[in-house]
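From the pipeline queue, job 12 of 40. The input is one protein chain; the requested action is below.

Action: predict structure.
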Amino acid sequence: MTTDENATPTPTRAQAEKAASAMLDVANARENLATRLKVAQYATWRARFNGMRGSRASAGIANAKLFRGSEDTLVVLADIPGFRDALAWAEGGWKAAIPADEVEGPPAVYFGVDPGQETAGGEAAFDASQVPLKLVSHFKVHDYATWHELFLKMDNSRVGGGMTNPSIFRGSEDGNDLLVLGDVADAAKFRAWLIEDFMTGYPTATGADRGTYRFAVELRA
């Protein structure tokens, strides 16, 4: 949302770098699993979802939160222990934890990663130039309408920062609790953009300066 109009308050670069690092802190990150799906009848599906808390706990899924987009497209955001658990979820384990009835087609599953992390052999575990990255952003704003107006104005800025095709989902319990999914071509470029965005003061003014920004890869069965 970078712009130069009405940019108050304005954090320093050091403050912006600290904030961006905290939001992208992989070591302390949760919310590693995002499942995007489309349902035929939201009310029916939601009632079943509410009744499956025990099943999610048994499947190792904690703190599942539900977000709604347009046309009953949903995202379930949750904590999950690790990559193997996420892969098992993507390969069909989700059917034991969230309703499979009335889900249109297989859901898309995204698992949080650090694009620069290394394997035990010192090689990059995820090559951002070879593995398409998603960005899963979760934050709570003061007022959705105000934030959304700025969001629409900042489309060119986001593209310049390497983020494209954003989709907005609002919390099922709180419309100011937001989740944004988008494509990221270059993780380092996006991080630099995020720092510049913080320095405008708009994230602080809207409430979007707190939350989690997770790079993620799409898991396929």
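Job complete. The beta strands are 33-38, 62-68, 73-79, 108-112, 133-140, 163-171, 177-184, 211-219.
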